[in-house]
């Protein structure tokens, strides 16, 4: 393991929260809270807030990401947003395959792959989410499932594009439940993800790829989770909506 090779990435996922007007206040509070970060700081916001977020974060150390992207370049896809539209706004990151999209919006491993490819081809960095449900953990298939999700999400992703891929391990049972994975559970699955990356792309790329943990990460548990050799950052939901909590997680990742 060589964690020193990887700069931690702390990314907020605002989900369907904050109007553009409300976002101004939160970003004003976030800027001083994360200004001394020694890690990459990203906020992924709703589409309607992206333009405001990009404008507000100019000249700061906060990067802006979207929460989803469509896989076609343009066309008759009412209500969808393309990767080029995000790039044009100044967005740098995008989440693909979040479990809430898989659960509520019929996202499949194949569409996650298509979205990830489209994002990478447009020059975005993709934060690709994988993770098991509680039933799957209890069935003892976590590792197989996460391996499968990772392999399908990365179909046709080139070695060059892997420098713009982050994998986020988010156990579904830990999201928004206050039930965090233990640092051992997070480490075990993040290490398994790195192993599959090694099988697909070789040791060097596997060692260089950021693998995050997400699921009820907060100011109190971040340091312990991030102390694990294969946990290179966090994808933060609820706690990313509070500047002090998000700032504390960023500080933990900067140690
Ligand atoms: P919570 O931090 O609210 O559990 O959400 C995690 C998540 O889904 C981030 O993408």
From TrEMBL:
GO terms for biological process: gluconeogenesis; glyceraldehyde-3-phosphate biosynthetic process; glycerol catabolic process; glycolytic process. It comes from the Bacteria. GO terms for cellular component: cytosol. The gene is tpiA. It comes from Candidatus Ruthenibacterium merdavium. Its main location: cytoplasm. InterPro entries: Aldolase_TIM (IPR013785), TIM_sf (IPR035990), TrioseP_Isoase_bac/euk (IPR022896), Triosephosphate_isomerase (IPR000652), Triosephosphate_isomerase_AS (IPR020861). It catalyses: D-glyceraldehyde 3-phosphate = dihydroxyacetone phosphate. This is Triosephosphate isomerase. GO terms for molecular function: triose-phosphate isomerase activity. The active site is at residues 98, 170. Substrate binds at residues 13-15, 176, 216, 237-238. Keywords: Cytoplasm, Gluconeogenesis, Glycolysis, Isomerase. Its EC number is 5.3.1.1. Belongs to the triosephosphate isomerase family. Pathway: Carbohydrate biosynthesis; gluconeogenesis; Carbohydrate degradation; glycolysis; D-glyceraldehyde 3-phosphate from glycerone phosphate: step 1/1. Homodimer. Involved in the gluconeogenesis. Catalyzes stereospecifically the conversion of dihydroxyacetone phosphate (DHAP) to D-glyceraldehyde-3-phosphate (G3P). Pfam families: TIM. It is found in: Cytoplasm.
């Amino acid at each position: 393991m060589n964690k020193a090779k990887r700069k931690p990435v702390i990314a907020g996922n605002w989900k369907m929260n904050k109007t553009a007007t409300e976002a101004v206040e939160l970003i004003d509070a976030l800027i001083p809270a994360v200004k001394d970060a020694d890690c990459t700081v990203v906020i992924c916001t709703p589409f309607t807030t992206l333009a405001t977020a990009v404008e507000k974060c100019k000249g700061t150390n906060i990067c802006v990401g979207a929460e989803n992207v469509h896989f076609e370049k343009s066309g008759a896809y009412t209500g969808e947003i393309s990767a080029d539209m995000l790039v044009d706004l100044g967005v740098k990151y995008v989440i693909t395959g979040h479990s809430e999209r898989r659960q509520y919006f019929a996202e499949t491993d194949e569409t996650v792959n298509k979205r990830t490819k489209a994002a990478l081809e447009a020059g975005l960095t993709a934060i690709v989410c994988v993770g098991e449900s509680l039933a799957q953990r209890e069935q003892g298939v976590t590792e197989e499932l996460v391996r499968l999700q990772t392999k399908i999400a990365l179909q046709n992703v080139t070695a060059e594009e892997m420098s713009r891929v982050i994998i986020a391990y988010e156990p579904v049972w830990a999201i928004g439940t206050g039930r965090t994975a233990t640092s051992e559970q997070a480490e075990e699955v993040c290490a398994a993800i790195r192993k599959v990356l090694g099988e697909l792309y070789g040791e060097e790329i596997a060692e260089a790829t950021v693998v995050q943990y997400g699921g009820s990460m907060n100011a109190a548990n971040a340091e312990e989770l991030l102390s694990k050799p294969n946990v290179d950052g966090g994808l933060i939901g609820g706690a990313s909506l509070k500047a002090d909590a998000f700032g504390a997680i960023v500080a933990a990742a900067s140690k």
